[in-house]
């Protein structure tokens, strides 16, 4: 009788039989032995045809062909032996998608990138197997590049399978074996450990487990028994998955999906650790110099889910040219800046050798976020922008699952999944948090305007699964609509809630002084962290324009368009905001609630100015476009306008009506912004003085003035809707702000 489980000597027994796939480790072993004997022909045959890992069909019958490393390496190509029909096997895998984006050159079409790089690992290994000077590099790279990619796919596949079970698929009744989350997760651990892996003192093996052992030995990241910390942690995480898979109604509950999402992300984050360790080792050790590109291929493209400027810089150092050791200090520094984004810490990496590369400094409570230094631990909260970036990146790829992985980023969040402190939250939590948002000074205005508590979340979830196209979005617009609704509606309302909650906490300090101050300070620092975002780094002006995704970045982008930069070439709005953030921090710390409330009000209204600029900007871009246009700008412009319309309506209903009829989707056959972008700008001006900020922070763009007094004076539409005295007082107040 065939075995129903597989046991590995390192203390793992699977729920299903994965002996066959685990034997791919012996192919790597035999390739290495052939290469050591200079038998390149045998090594290539093993790589291409397989030798030790039998394949079975869904009936359990052994097939004529072995599983081969080359088949695994080409699985990303549509139509290849292991592909899913006319789609690549990895098409819905976030890890694969980040890899493709990270290998692209600037401006290169994605279809060309996939065509060129879907089998990047096979291309690299084939080259090494034909280079007689490469030694055993071809065998080693099979584990580093192919097995790691295929193992990671099994994790994502298990998660996808679990979702299918939740939607009604019965794996017990499925005779094809296509949907089997238990098998997928067991395949992962079989590929990670591999057949033949031994315990101490030798720790001999050929797969990713052995790789982690090597990294742990070099960087001092082992436990008392000599097992690499990464291996201990991944085994425990896998066993947590096993526990879920052993439950009676596994995968049928939302909490099961959420738990699996967290476990999968934690495992993948741990898998990066030995790759980075051995990349550093290969850069430092002259005897390992030829391995730099191999490890760089495993690490650098994955940084496309982090700060783009860092990813591009590392790509230029390590992939676009041959590695030069003179660049090593800069490379290591850039890598260390990316640890937190990838989900591990400086202590996870450790110290290389005898302090050859020291352990980097951990992120502390007062780690700067752009020009602001928080007093509370809000770093995890600032990483909400990484989830937005991931969703934006995943939407660049076609999907047959309604972008399910992007949905999970929205629903559960990677930052929240990796955070063990409980301080990080998901984007959907932001969108569905009336307990936080009810403190917003504009809560009732948004509720009245949208006529529902969860307007943004409803729109986002509808857009994800809009089979009937209720929202009238093209495929090109759908992703832009979802991402911009998150950026400009969900985030904005949540931040206004934090402002109100911070003021309320300060007032409560009169009853409980210590607790009230701490809560108020935490809310205020949280406001700053989310306004700025982790992608801005630590420089006072923030990072490059290509990096950020939060309101800080929006202000910086619009400052270029509207000529409202300060002397350090970033937005005057952000310059003002930093002053207010520090002032508010000081006021709430000493329970000066009267001045703190004034500061928070000014900061909240200042935050609206980039939205006003951007509404005008997209009025300029969308002017005269037909409603049938598939341009992403139409969706983004509409979202931006509707993000501030509840506030505009509070102060001037005629201004709100003007913005809405120009920025909302026009009737079929009609033109967008039919009254012209200046009309939108004039409507925005009518509420500007109510917000307490002047025209100098708005500026003008492409001939459209944020404060065009001549146009306002001769605008019959506005003279009818407002009496002359009101208009005159508006102009006088505006000129007063300009004169300041």
Task: Explain what you see.
- A hairpin with a 2-residue loop joins strand 5 (700-701) and strand 6 (704-705).
- It is globular and about 85 Å long.
- Residues 714-740 have low confidence and may be disordered.
- It is 60% helix and 2% strand.
Helix content: 55-70%
* Largest sheet: number of strands, sense, barrel closure: 2 strands, antiparallel
- N-to-C span: 88 Å
Unreliable stretches: 714-740
The number of helical runs is: 35
List the helices and strands and how they pair.
Elements: E1 7-8, E2 12-13, H1 19-22, H2 24-36, H3 40-49, E3 54-56, E4 62-66, H4 69-73, H5 94-103, H6 110-117, H7 120-129, H8 137-166, H9 181-193, H10 208-219, H11 229-245, H12 254-284, H13 292-299, H14 308-318, H15 328-342, H16 346-349, H17 379-382, H18 384-394, H19 404-411, H20 414-418, H21 427-431, H22 434-437, H23 443-450, H24 455-464, H25 475-508, H26 513-532, H27 551-561, H28 572-589, H29 593-622, H30 632-651, H31 653-663, H32 677-691, E5 700-701, E6 704-705, H33 709-713, H34 716-721, H35 724-739
Antiparallel strand pairs: 1-2, 3-4, 5-6
Helix pairs in contact: 2-3, 2-8, 7-8, 8-9, 8-12, 9-11, 10-12, 11-12, 12-13, 12-15, 14-15, 18-19, 23-30, 24-25, 25-26, 25-29, 25-30, 26-28, 27-29, 28-29, 29-30, 29-32, 30-31, 31-32
């Amino acid at each position: 009788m065939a075995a129903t489980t597989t046991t590995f000597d390192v203390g793992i027994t699977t729920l299903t039989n994965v002996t066959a796939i685990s034997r791919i480790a012996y192919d790597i072993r035999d390739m290495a032995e052939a290469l050591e004997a200079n038998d390149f022909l045998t090594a290539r045959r093993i790589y291409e045809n397989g030798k030790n890992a039998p394949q079975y069909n869904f009936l359990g019958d052994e097939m004529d062909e072995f599983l081969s490393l080359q088949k695994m390496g080409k699985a990303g190509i549509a139509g290849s032996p292991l592909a899913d029909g006319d789609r690549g096997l990895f098409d819905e895998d976030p890890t694969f998608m980040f890899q493709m984006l990270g290998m692209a050159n600037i401006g290169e079409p994605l279809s060309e990138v996939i065509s060129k790089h879907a089998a990047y690992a096979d291309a690299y290994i084939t080259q090494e197997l034909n280079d007689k000077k490469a030694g055993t590099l071809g065998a080693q790279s099979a584990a580093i590049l192919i097995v790691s990619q295929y193992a990671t796919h099994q994790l994502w596949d298990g998660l996808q399978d679990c979702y299918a079970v939740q939607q009604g698929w019965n794996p017990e009744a499925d005779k094809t074996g296509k949907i089997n989350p238990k098998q997928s997760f067991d395949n992962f651990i079989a590929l990670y450990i591999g057949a033949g892996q031994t315990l101490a003192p030798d720790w001999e093996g050929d797969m990713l487990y052995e790789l982690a052992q090597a990294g742990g030995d070099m960087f001092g990241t082992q436990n008392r028994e000599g097992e690499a910390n990464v291996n201990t942690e991944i085994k425990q995480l896998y066993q947590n998955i096993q526990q879920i898979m052993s439950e009676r109604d596994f995968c049928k509950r939302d909490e099961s999906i959420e738990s699996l999402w967290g476990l999968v992300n934690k495992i993948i984050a741990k898998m990066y650790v030995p790759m980075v360790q051995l990349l550093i080792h290969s850069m430092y050790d002259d005897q390992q110099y030829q391995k730099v590109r191999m490890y760089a291929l495993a690490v650098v493209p994955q940084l496309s889910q982090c700060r783009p400027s860092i990813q591009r810089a590392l790509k230029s150092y390590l992939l676009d040219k041959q590695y030069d050791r003179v660049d090593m200090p800069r490379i290591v520094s850039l890598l260390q800046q990316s640890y937190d984004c990838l989900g591990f810490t400086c202590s996870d990496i450790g110290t290389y050798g005898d302090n050859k590369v020291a352990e980097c400094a951990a992120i502390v409570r007062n780690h700067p976020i752009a020009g602001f230094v928080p007093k509370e631990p809000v770093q995890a909260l600032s990483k909400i922008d990484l989830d937005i970036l991931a969703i934006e990146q995943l939407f660049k790829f076609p999907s047959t699952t309604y972008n399910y992985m992007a949905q999970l980023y929205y629903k559960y969040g990677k930052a929240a999944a990796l955070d063990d402190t409980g301080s990080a939250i998901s984007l959907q939590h932001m969108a569905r948090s009336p307990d936080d948002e009810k403190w917003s000074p504009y809560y009732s205005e948004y509720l009245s305007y949208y006529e529902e508590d969860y307007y943004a979340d409803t729109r986002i979830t509808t857009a994800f699964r809009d089979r009937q196209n209720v929202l009238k979005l093209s495929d090109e617009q759908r992703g832009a609509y979802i991402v911009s609704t998150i950026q400009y509606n969900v985030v904005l309302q949540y931040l206004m809630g934090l402002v109100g909650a911070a003021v309320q906490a300060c007032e409560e300090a009169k009853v409980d002084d210590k607790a009230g101050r701490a809560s108020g300070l935490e809310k205020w620092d949280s406001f700053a962290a989310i306004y700025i975002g982790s992608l801005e780094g630590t420089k006072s002006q923030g990072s490059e324009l290509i990096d950020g995704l939060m309101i800080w970045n929006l202000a910086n982008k619009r400052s270029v368009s509207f000529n409202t930069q300060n002397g350090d070439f970033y937005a005057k709005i952000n310059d003002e905001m930093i002053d207010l953030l520090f002032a508010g921090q000081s006021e709430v710390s000493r329970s000066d609630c009267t001045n703190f409330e004034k500061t928070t009000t000014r900061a909240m209204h200042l935050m609206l100015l980039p939205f006003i600029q951007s509404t005008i900007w997209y009025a300029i871009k969308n002017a005269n476009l037909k409603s049938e246009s598939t341009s992403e700008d139409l969706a983004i412009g509409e979202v931006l306008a509707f993000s501030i319309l509840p506030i505009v309506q509070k102060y001037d209903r005629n201004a709100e009506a003007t913005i809405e009829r120009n920025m909302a989707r026009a009737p079929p056959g009609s033109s967008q912004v039919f009254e012209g972008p200046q009309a939108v700008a004039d409507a925005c001006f009518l509420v500007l003085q109510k917000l307490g900020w002047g025209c100098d922070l708005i500026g003008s763009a492409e001939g459209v003035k944020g404060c065009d007094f001549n146009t306002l004076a001769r605008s019959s539409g506005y003279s009818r809707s407002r009496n002359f005295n009101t208009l005159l007082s508006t102009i006088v107040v505006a000129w007063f702000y300009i004169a300041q």
